[in-house]
Amino acid sequence: MKKLVLAAALTAAASTAYAGNLEEPVVEAPVVVEETQGSSQGIILPLILLVVVAAAVAAS
Protein backbone atom coordinates (compact mmCIF):
# COMPACT_ATOMS: atom_id res chain seq x y z
CA MET A 1 0.00 0.00 0.00
CA LYS A 2 2.89 2.31 0.80
CA LYS A 3 4.32 1.81 -2.69
CA LEU A 4 0.97 2.74 -4.26
CA VAL A 5 0.77 5.95 -2.24
CA LEU A 6 4.40 6.75 -3.01
CA ALA A 7 3.83 6.12 -6.73
CA ALA A 8 0.73 8.32 -6.73
CA ALA A 9 2.61 11.12 -4.94
CA LEU A 10 5.53 10.95 -7.37
CA THR A 11 3.16 10.93 -10.34
CA ALA A 12 1.34 13.99 -9.02
CA ALA A 13 4.61 15.80 -8.38
CA ALA A 14 5.96 14.93 -11.83
CA SER A 15 2.81 16.04 -13.65
CA THR A 16 2.85 19.48 -12.01
CA ALA A 17 6.55 19.88 -12.77
CA TYR A 18 5.89 19.59 -16.52
CA ALA A 19 2.68 21.64 -16.54
CA GLY A 20 4.38 24.66 -18.11
CA ASN A 21 4.46 28.28 -17.06
CA LEU A 22 2.09 31.23 -17.13
CA GLU A 23 4.00 33.30 -19.68
CA GLU A 24 2.48 33.88 -23.09
CA PRO A 25 4.36 32.16 -25.92
CA VAL A 26 6.42 34.45 -28.13
CA VAL A 27 5.27 34.21 -31.73
CA GLU A 28 7.17 36.19 -34.32
CA ALA A 29 5.27 37.69 -37.22
CA PRO A 30 6.06 36.17 -40.62
CA VAL A 31 8.12 38.32 -42.96
CA VAL A 32 6.30 39.23 -46.16
CA VAL A 33 8.42 40.38 -49.09
CA GLU A 34 6.60 41.92 -52.03
CA GLU A 35 8.22 42.43 -55.38
CA THR A 36 7.91 45.96 -56.63
CA GLN A 37 6.60 46.47 -60.13
CA GLY A 38 6.26 49.57 -62.21
CA SER A 39 2.83 50.99 -62.87
CA SER A 40 3.11 50.28 -66.61
CA GLN A 41 3.58 46.50 -66.27
CA GLY A 42 -0.09 45.71 -66.69
CA ILE A 43 -0.69 47.91 -69.73
CA ILE A 44 1.91 46.50 -72.14
CA LEU A 45 -0.13 43.49 -73.28
CA PRO A 46 -3.35 45.46 -73.95
CA LEU A 47 -1.35 48.04 -75.93
CA ILE A 48 0.23 45.30 -78.08
CA LEU A 49 -3.20 43.77 -78.71
CA LEU A 50 -4.57 47.20 -79.63
CA VAL A 51 -1.75 47.72 -82.14
CA VAL A 52 -2.36 44.28 -83.67
CA VAL A 53 -6.12 44.91 -83.98
CA ALA A 54 -5.52 48.37 -85.45
CA ALA A 55 -3.10 46.90 -87.98
CA ALA A 56 -5.61 44.23 -88.94
CA VAL A 57 -8.36 46.81 -89.39
CA ALA A 58 -6.09 49.08 -91.43
CA ALA A 59 -5.03 46.19 -93.67
CA SER A 60 -8.56 45.23 -94.62
TrEMBL record:
Span of the signal peptide: 1-19
Record keywords: Membrane included?
yes
Which residue windows are transmembrane per the record?
43-59
**Domain of life, source organism:** Bacteria
| Record keywords, A-Z | Membrane, Signal, Transmembrane, Transmembrane helix
User: Could you identify this protein by its name?
Assistant: Ferrochelatase
